[in-house]
Amino acid sequence: MSSQPQAHILFSREEIETMVKRLAAEIKKDYQGKHPLLLGILKGSFMFMADLIRFLDFPLEIEFIRLSSYGRGRSTSGKIKVVQGLRSSIKDRDVLVIEDIVDTGLTISFLLDYLQKKKPASLKLCALTDKHSRRQIPVTIDYLGFTVPNKFIVGYGLDWDEKFRNLPDICVLEGEG
Ligand code: 5GP
Ligand code: MG
After folding, report:
1. What is the pTM of this model?
2. Residue 159 CA, closest ligand 1 atom number
3. In this structure, are residues 151 and 160 in contact, taking their beta carbons and an 8 Å threshold?
4. Whether residue 159 lies in the annotated active site
5. Most C-beta atoms within 10 A of its C-beta, which of 13, 35, 91, 126?
């Protein structure tokens, strides 16, 4: 019988809330008088984005994009595809991408290039977590929640095999195959 992986808390829901408020304050200051488009990358960023926008009390819009990068297993294959694209134009918009985790950087670099070609007025990145030690391509994260160790992270939107997204804390998964 194989043992079930265990999730251990790395950042608690209270720490997450404090962090989300901090990021919201930074974003609010930078987007004064603008009307940004927050672009969430599905599925991992859904919970973070939902919490973040509750503290952004100014006009904004949200949109989602879905990428396939992972295939099977735990690390990015490097072959990234836009599975569900933009429904509206981002030309001349102030676009803020919301990502769950920047690991090697391959996924987000691909997406930022893809979006840049569509000529937004500005393009910035807000990431919930940064697994900095694994970076292969340099990525500027304009708004960062937490730096995480080189472990597999789940919870608060992040999954392992589509499970654990509903955990309210950011956790490290241990004992998984
Ligand atoms: P990258 O292209 O930067 O290597 O990988 C980025 C994507 O890989 C993230 O958007 C996320 O979907 C997935 N990923 C990378 N590390 C982790 C992790 O520790 N936990 C989970 N759940 N997904 C990860
Ligand atoms: Mg992702």
Report:
1. 0.93
2. 22
3. no
4. no
5. 126
